[in-house]
Amino acid sequence: MTIWEACQKLTSEGISFVMVTMTGVRGSAPQDIGAKMLVTKDGLYYGTVGGGKVEMASIKKSQEILKGEQVPPESVVWNLQKDIGMSCGGEVVMLFEHHHQSSWPIVIFGAGHVAQALTRVLSKLNCSVTCVDSREEWVAKLEGVKGIHHPTPKDMVNTFSPNCYFMSMTMGHAHDVPILYEIAKHAPDCPYVGVIGSDIKGIKIRRELKEMGVSDEFLKKLRVPMGLPIGTNQPYEMAISIVAELLQVRDGSKTQN
């Protein structure tokens, strides 16, 4: 795995990291200019800038950076004796680049007309969106979000974090129910779960899920129809009503915490 593949892996998993690059050297140094490493909140993830005290200091600074929301790139000059405590002389210049990943993960099942509008709106916000559908041609139309083609979308549910905001916007109620059942098993405490549809559809879905053994607590949090009661049935107006509800739930959760 290259460092760029490691960056891509961390990004796809929603893990924030700092890339540390040695951009300058004067005198003795434990590595060459251009040496890189990736640091997560758990410590060194990939690469090296020379090991020893320089690397330890770089990891410590990176972990401090990771405590912030979004920290701009910072270049630091360290004297190896005075600042790092090494016996050899010289200086190193280290560049710290913060790659902050969104902590607002959203998963949409179904890539139809409303989902196409919804994903385009969400792609402008600071969130991480994944859309799953069994129809490859609809997944191909998605823009600005991660699209996954899978023949049985319900089998993808347990691959996502239980902290995701889940939405089911499939071809119909018969496709929604298996997905919702898997969400109820895998992520019963997820912050949001909603389904596109009518009040009558909601009554039918809740009844079927209850017969399948889904808890009353999950059924109470299930939003059918999802979205605020504003706008028309035009896809982008529906998308805006759904995004407004998502923001309401997200910011309400922050207030409570």
Describe the fold and architecture.
The protein has 257 residues and is α/β, with parallel strands linked by helices. Helices cover 36% and strands 23% of the residues. The protein contains eight helices and ten strands. Helix 3 crosses helix 8 and helix 5 packs across helix 6. The longest helix has 22 residues.
User: What structural category do the secondary elements indicate?
Assistant: alpha/beta
Radius of gyration: 23 Å
Report the sheet with the most strands, covering strand number, pairing sense and barrel closure: 5 strands, antiparallel
The helix content, as a percent range, equals 25-40%
Low confidence ranges = none
Which percent range describes the beta-strand content? 15-25%
The total count of helices amounts to: 8
Biggest sheet strand line-up: 3-2-1-5-4
What value does the average pLDDT take? Answer: 91
Q: Gap between N and C termini, in Å?
A: 39 Å
Shape verdict: elongated
Total DSSP E strands: 10
Helix-strand sequence = HEEEHEEEHEHEEHEHHH
